[in-house]
């Protein structure tokens, strides 16, 4: 425990915020190419699982591009048994996926603690895995990395498959950082992935068969000291029957495993949906408690395509070996194997038929009776295992599950709620489809899986305002919405590149595939600064404020610029933004001068002195004027400062 705590503390990602959105919490698991953390999506206030690729993968441009493409493809998968992908990102070379957080454990934990599992339990765990793969295969997505570590079992028992598309993204690059993936996956790789790297839905079927084998036995079918030895075994050796390790396993379960893991992919079920139907049939046989079901076993047995001459027979007798057909499993013919002999052992020469001596007549009747008895026995068995034990699935579509159960019971059948899916035509709560489908053959007392309609697929538009445009687009992917028209506008409060508005608006209910239109900020609108030098302060202030700019004012004397006009402006050119300040220097007119002292001087002298000093003289007579024309007072007084050109009032006696 102490080592784990120390690791958590020393982990450089714990506590870090990726992409400005995801706060990394405790480490959950570590694999060959990534580490999974519990994280908080601070934007949507929810817990997510953050899968962070190991250092070095983000430096590979090819891998990064493929990673983004495959993550987007995986995000389009919407299925109750698929771990949802919410977002993908690149934080300065750190590639990550934001996924649904599933509290619980992995299938690896179950196998380690409980295997070998009872066949019914193993098939019940495999069924939802195949349901998830069926949805992926229908969408053209191949998982490529089905293994117990990628199967999550939630605390409520729901089984979910993770990491769709990641194996494909990794396999597209030669980065040595992906070697760990091979080490962890090689036990489940289909032969064609080893030999030529090609993969299709049947490759996932093979891996699912290996999963089933491991659940049934607790062991992997092939082992070796190195990954290459295990890979070689997948290519050159058949998966053994699980009953060799657990003898109580019925033959039809053996046949199911070996059919799914046939080395020739053409002999496997075409995809997960076909394998799922086969699993359903085997599960029904187990419910019936059948130790063997020859017809079912025959249906599932891998067809014999070629009988080699190294069969090991050495008695020289002709042998009949049944050759089984494909999916329907009926015996079509018996191929005769003729073994050439030389003194009781096989020879290397051409095959020759060994002729038995002609039968005696007395034995002909006996032979005929035996043949008829055999024919009757075969016919009876065929009737029992073919017609007698099966009935036809009734049409339960558009019924509510309770009514469907009653209708099925009338035919001696049971129903189970196997799945839910969206439908534009079948109302919510009614049966959308059945497995087997209406009219298909089903074992008497068998079980019909009901897929119930969730009604029309609809989603609510999330809150996107304030998000970076790319993050907003990523938020649409999990709910199957598309980015529509994008209009850019200047905005004084929303930073450039972020969403100002969107339509349909938040919480609107929309259909999958609908478009969401965005108004995206170009940032603050630039303002070209006009030059107001020489204008009156009132005009300059009005012009600048109308453009959205703030105005500052200082004053100073200037002999050339009239009082109240702008002497200078900072800045007087270039570009500003709203609420930026422009500083104006406004003229107070020419500098002040000292007013001369003209008291007690004659009127004529006073006028001359003041006029020479640049002032205008205004003469007033004292109320008690004596006619002396002597200056008794002046305003402004002697020693005061006044602007040249201003008026000095003198009072004379």
UniProtKB/TrEMBL annotation:
InterPro entries associated with the record: Kinase-like_dom_sf, PASTA_dom, Prot_kinase_dom, Ser/Thr_kinase_AS
Signal peptide residues on this chain, from the entry's feature table: none
EC number assigned by the record: 2.7.11.1
Transferase keyword on record: yes
Annotated Gene3D superfamilies: 3.30.10.20, Phosphorylase Kinase, domain 1, Transferase(Phosphotransferase) domain 1
PROSITE patterns (UniProt xref): PASTA (PS51178), PROTEIN_KINASE_DOM (PS50011), PROTEIN_KINASE_ST (PS00108)
Leading EC class: transferase
Transmembrane segments: 365-385
Keyword annotations of the record: ATP-binding, Kinase, Membrane, Nucleotide-binding, Serine/threonine-protein kinase, Transferase, Transmembrane, Transmembrane helix
Protein kinase domain sequence ranges: 22-283
Protein name: non-specific serine/threonine protein kinase
Lineage per the UniProt record: Bacteria, Bacillati, Actinomycetota, Actinomycetes, Propionibacteriales
